[in-house]
Amino acid sequence: MSAAGESGRRDAQQMRARAADLEQAAERATDPQERQQLKDKARELKEQSEHAGGTGKRDIDPM
Prior knowledge:
The protein has helices spanning 3-28, 32-53, 55-58. The relative contact order is 0.19. It is mainly alpha-helical and 63 residues long.
């Protein structure tokens, strides 16, 4: 695997870990607005991690 691919995978793992931290913080939050903001940010990070982690797979030509 290329260095760029490994870097992307590491970045994706870090984003997923951060998203999990934000979800836990959202569960502890007492303010409903803060809770929603934390959940939204966690969702965004999960989506970004899916794109970052999958970039190498999309570059491969199946033919």
